[in-house]
Design the sequence.
């Protein structure tokens, strides 16, 4: 019997979450009600095989910052799972069909996700659009430079919950400055404080340091500290979760604070932007080990509105030949004209200059993956000699796109 897809009812939340936890081979985490607070029951699916709940998925109504600073409605796919007894029979495919059709019905031009395994979602049209920088700074050996403009800052340790509103005000100011960031409701803001004891790996509870100038909060960092003693020497580690700052000096002062915490000799972070200033703040780059991993996957659901919603670094006027097997309404030729102030994207019969699939457009959409690098991998074809490079530069972003947290 083919499992039946139905919307999740609030009373089914516990079994839905149990199915999900089992599929990820994790125990049900503490504080899971925090996730319930952001669940959208009219976008959360269950797959039922008789009385057995065998599949889950959910989309969040997100808004993603795109190049130029606009905030674009996005169906953020998450909580996808299929019971081990029902895998490789097409259940994920059926749920994706429902979720992407629903995203389109809602008029959201974009869909996005972070993947448990990056190999799964290309077949559904999602391309890797942002990356996370994983950082490990050997703070016993490097210094972190702080510019003189930081001298009037006051740093203050505060309760993360009590300081939530001040921190969110900093986050809101940072929102348009980098593509990839998500608008945060109060529920999403609170979720960033999710800190169940079972997930602290022996570290402290979440700490928060505020940077203030003239009594106004201009930056914050949230982190925990793992104490670790080797032969009576402190080898503790600071684990940075989130750092936002209004200006460069404040960002440097916060990194300096983290690097100087007594009884620690390392600062680690696993979700920083690829161009995080820390690479230029440390006195010895080799002792700030930096590594990239995939982060946000983007899928244009309505290609025309999606490409017209962002701006372009250089003026461009080009025709793209696009294929999209899973959402065939996007397949065809599109004329894209735009510059740093806006863009138009419409269907055309004119000759195409570049040929690519919606996956490559998703990857390039936020300006973090270049069309040139995709062409060098044989994934974008230049149909008119010389067309590719200017379009590739126009799609770029002066700051790397960045998703500050998962969803
Ligand atoms: C956005 C998120 O929530 S990411 C979280 C994803 N969930 C997990 O990783 C939890 C553990 N895994 C699972 O629950 C399941 O294995 C899932 C959800 C990944 C796949 O569900 P299934 O119902 O088995 O997938 P389904 O049978 O629909 O497969 C669809 C296609 O994806 C492919 N696929 C499925 N799983 C994987 C995988 N892990 N890696 C690569 N390809 C995969 C299938 O081969 C199939 O390809 P095809 O259409 O080209 O033949």
Sequence:
């Amino acid at each position: 019997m083919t499992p039946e897809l139905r919307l999740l009812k609030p009373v089914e939340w516990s079994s839905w979450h149990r199915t999900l936890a089992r599929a990820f081979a994790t125990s049900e985490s503490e504080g899971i009600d925090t996730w319930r607070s952001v669940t959208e029951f009219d976008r959360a699916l269950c797959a039922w095989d008789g009385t057995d709940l065998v599949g889950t998925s959910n989309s969040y109504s997100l808004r993603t910052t795109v190049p130029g600073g606009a905030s674009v409605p996005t169906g953020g796919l998450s909580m996808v799972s299929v019971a081990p007894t029902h895998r490789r029979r097409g259940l994920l495919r059926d749920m994706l069909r429902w979720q992407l059709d629903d995203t389109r019905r809602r008029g959201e031009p974009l869909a996005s996700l972070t993947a448990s395994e990056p190999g799964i979602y290309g077949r559904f049209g999602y391309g890797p659009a942002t990356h996370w920088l994983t950082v490990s700074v050997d703070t016993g050996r490097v210094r972190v430079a702080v510019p003189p403009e930081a001298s009037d800052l006051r740093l203050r340790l505060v309760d993360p919950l009590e300081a939530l509103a001040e921190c969110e005000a900093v986050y809101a100011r940072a929102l348009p400055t980098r593509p990839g960031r998500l608008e945060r409701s109060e529920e999403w803001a609170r979720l960033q404080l999710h800190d169940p004891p079972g997930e602290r790996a022996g570290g402290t509870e979440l700490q928060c340091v505020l940077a203030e100038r003239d009594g106004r909060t201009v930056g914050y960092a949230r982190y925990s500290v793992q104490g670790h003693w080797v032969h009576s020497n402190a080898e503790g580690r600071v684990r940075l979760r989130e750092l936002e700052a209004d200006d460069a000096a404040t960002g440097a002062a916060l990194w300096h604070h983290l690097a100087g915490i007594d009884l620690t000799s390392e600062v680690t972070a696993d979700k920083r932007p690829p161009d995080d200033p820390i690479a230029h703040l440390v006195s010895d780059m080799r002792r700030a080990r930096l590594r990239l991993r995939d982060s946000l996957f983007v899928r244009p659901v309505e290609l025309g509105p999606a490409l017209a919603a962002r701006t372009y670094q250089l003026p461009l006027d080009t025709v793209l030949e696009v294929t999209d097997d899973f959402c065939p309404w996007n397949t065809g030729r599109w004329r894209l004209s735009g510059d740093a102030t806006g863009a138009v994207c419409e269907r055309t019969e004119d000759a195409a200059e570049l040929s690519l699939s919606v996956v490559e457009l998703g990857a390039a959409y936020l300006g973090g993956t270049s069309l040139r690098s995709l062409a060098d991998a044989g994934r974008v074809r230049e149909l008119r000699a010389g067309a590719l490079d200017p379009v590739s530069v126009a799609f770029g972003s002066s700051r790397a796109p960045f998703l500050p947290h998962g969803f």
